[in-house]
Amino acid sequence: MRIASWNVNSVRTRLDQVLAWLEAERPEVLCLQETKVADELFPHASFQALGYATAISGQKAYNGVAILSRLPIEDVQVGFTPLLPQDPQALDLGEQKRVISAQIAGLRVLNLYVPNGSSLRSEKYAYKLEWLACLKRYLQAQEAIGEPLVMVGDFNIALEARDIYDPARLTGGIMASEPEREALLAALGERLEDGFRLFEPESGHWSWWDYRTAGWETGRGWRIDHIYLDAELRDHALGCTIDAPMRGNPQPSDHAPVIINLAWPPQDEGEDDDEEC
DNA sequence: ATGACTAGCACGGCTAGA
Known about the structure:
Layout: E1 2-7, H1 15-25, E2 29-33, H2 44-48, E3 53-57, E4 65-69, E5 74-78, H3 88-93, E6 99-104, E7 107-113, H4 123-145, E8 149-154, H5 167-170, H6 178-188, E9 193-194, E10 208-209, H7 215-218, E11 221-222, E12 225-229, H8 231-234, E13 237-242, E14 258-262
Parallel strand pairs: 1-2, 7-8
Antiparallel strand pairs: 1-14, 2-4, 3-4, 5-6, 6-7, 8-12, 9-12, 10-11, 13-14
Helix pairs in contact: 4-6
The protein binds one DNA strand through loops.
């Protein structure tokens, strides 16, 4: 099965592009970030017409996440609070709609829109670090449950020099500062690893290009959209790609889709695979 | 050093993104 992640920068503005991409690619699951729409205005019917069930957590104008799936969606959870019921910060952070998860094909699919942080001196940067600290607690609680985990989203962090077009200039700034990198690494722990880096060690692969600097036209990008796998799912990973050409569309999102291909559900490895003659 | 461009809200010029 294939699971994709795409920050669409408004699901309504991008609706035709998202529908066309779904028809062309037919992933089992697509996780959206920055849907920028209140739940009552989410375009459920357009996705259902293509065979995708929807689970959403949105708000007016900002943020918003959604899971679209051709496989049945079960046990949808919104925000951090379902796994951190006694955590007051988890409740406060839930005002911004950035977290949704669901059980699909026996997997826990967790879709995140990590705060950007704006600049290192901004209150939003402190919020980003608090949010990541809460994510760490959340993932510890999730690990205790024992479901296989795929964690996707817009992380708004480039973890390494090879994830930025000009690391010499940009390292240390927003999306590439040591505190936010450490906070994300602490949340990942020993458990979660970047699916893209299982297959591609080289630099030059980006998932976001700035509108303002004509980043796409000049090849200046960042790899800030990630798909993380636990050890069990790493054993089933077949490939991970970024559909960069989508950034070259007319009126594009500033992000491109990232797709992981998993050999899941696991096939029986026993001897009862005898075929009919 | 700063801004660029895009989207939402609402219809003028902000906020926010990254």
